[in-house]
């Protein structure tokens, strides 16, 4: 095995392209091969009252762990169990309410035997994913998901490459099919992903808005003096003008004040305000709110229960979005 020498860049790039081409071709074969057993597997998982236990050994184990993670984050309770640890007590993690998904390219992985036996003994639904229909895993399974025959992408044809790519894609297909059947929404997704940039992208206006005594609101019959005091106290740079029951009819901003400096204190609130101001619903994503503020060159939006409503329930400032990591 050579470990040094001059690198042939063109040859290396060509090798990379060959691998991706082989795996892409295998994925197309897999796509065309999906049929009734795939739908049966989805139905089995949907019918499970507990969790989906996912397991595999070696490279299949790494893929199984990722599949379990994807399922769990998209609305399907799932747990990865290492097959060797299962044989030493972790079988107790599997309840009679669960279903099991086992991955093995050959379908003959010896470390899976205790898991297979356990599911058969207690009539726990078993989905087997393998490349050989006649393998022990598939024959013992209630549902077999067969990976089509395709060459591994490595030069010696032995390292799991194409086979693990297909297994991973098939796991993703299961997860997305389950998501779509459950009508898993962006709001549901946010519940499982509160942290990091993904969480920031999915946070809603209602999560960030200021409410109740923080709202800069005055009645349309208020004086400009009252409006200026409220605007200064609340610190948002705006004051909303309302009629009965917090119905928003206008807004006064710093710009409105500058345009009406002459005789400002003698003017009525409704003479200074900008009517029908921009609003956003509490259920909208904060990213949408930030986009509207940037587009209209404003720094705050009053929040309503739903689009088209004039009832004010909150206010969102551009700084609230930025502090939450919304971009």
Given this structure, which CATH class of the largest domain is correct?
Alpha Beta
Number of folding domains?
2
Helical proportion?
A: 40-55%
Order of helices and strands: HHEHEHEHEHEHHHHEHEEHHEEHEEH
Summarize this structure briefly.
The protein has 327 residues and is of the alpha/beta class.
Keywords:
327 residues, alpha/beta, Rossmann fold, CBS-domain, 2 domains, 5-stranded parallel β-sheet, 4-stranded mixed β-sheet, 15 helices, 12 strands, 16% strand
Can you give a write-up of this model?
The chain has 327 residues and is an alpha/beta fold. It has 2 domains: 12-183, Rossmann fold; 205-323, Roll (CBS-domain), CATH 3.10.580.10. Helices cover 45% and strands 16% of the residues. The protein is built from 15 helices and 12 strands. Strands 2-1-3-4-5 form a 5-stranded parallel sheet, sandwiched between helices. α3 packs parallel to α7. The two termini are 49 Å apart.
How are the elements arranged and paired?
Blueprint: H1 9-33, H2 36-47, E1 52-56, H3 59-73, E2 78-80, H4 83-86, E3 99-103, H5 113-121, E4 126-130, H6 136-140, E5 143-146, H7 162-182, H8 186-192, H9 196-202, H10 205-208, E6 217-219, H11 224-234, E7 238-243, E8 247-253, H12 254-259, H13 269-272, E9 274-275, E10 279-281, H14 286-296, E11 300-304, E12 314-317, H15 318-323
Helix pairs in contact: 1-7, 3-7
């Amino acid at each position: 095995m050579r470990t040094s020498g001059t690198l042939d860049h063109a040859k290396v790039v060509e090798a990379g392209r060959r691998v991706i081409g082989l795996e892409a071709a295998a994925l197309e074969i897999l796509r065309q091969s999906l049929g009734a057993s795939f739908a049966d597997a989805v139905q089995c998982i949907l019918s499970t009252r507990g969790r989906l236990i996912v397991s595999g050994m070696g490279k299949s184990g790494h893929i199984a762990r990722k599949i379990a993670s994807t399922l769990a984050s998209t609305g399907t309770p799932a747990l990865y169990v290492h097959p060797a640890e299962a044989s030493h007590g972790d079988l107790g993690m599997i309840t009679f309410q669960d279903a099991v998904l086992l991955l093995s390219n050959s379908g003959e992985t010896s470390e899976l035997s205790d898991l297979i036996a356990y599911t058969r003994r207690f009539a726990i639904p078993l989905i087997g994913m393998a490349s050989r229909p006649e393998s022990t895993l598939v024959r013992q399974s209630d549902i077999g998901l067969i990976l089509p025959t395709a060459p591994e992408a490595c030069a010696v044809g032995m390292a799991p490459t194409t086979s693990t790519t297909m297994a991973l894609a098939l796991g993703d297909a299961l997860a997305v099919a389950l998501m779509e059947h459950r009508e898993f929404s962006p709001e549901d997704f946010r519940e499982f992903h509160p942290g990091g940039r993904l969480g920031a992208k999915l946070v809603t206006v209602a999560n960030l808005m200021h409410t109740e005594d923080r709202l800069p609101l005055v009645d349309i019959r208020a004086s400009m003096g009252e409006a200026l005091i409220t605007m200064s106290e609340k610190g948002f740079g705006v004051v909303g003008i309302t009629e009965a029951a917090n119905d928003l009819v206008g807004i006064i901003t710093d710009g409105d004040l500058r345009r009406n400096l002459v005789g400002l204190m003698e003017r009525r609130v409704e003479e200074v305000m900008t009517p029908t101001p921009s609003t956003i619903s509490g259920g909208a994503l904060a990213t949408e709110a930030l986009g509207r503020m940037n587009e209209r060159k404003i720094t705050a939006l009053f929040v309503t229960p739903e689009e088209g409503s004039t009832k004010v329930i909150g206010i969102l400032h551009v700084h609230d979005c930025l502090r939450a990591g919304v971009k």
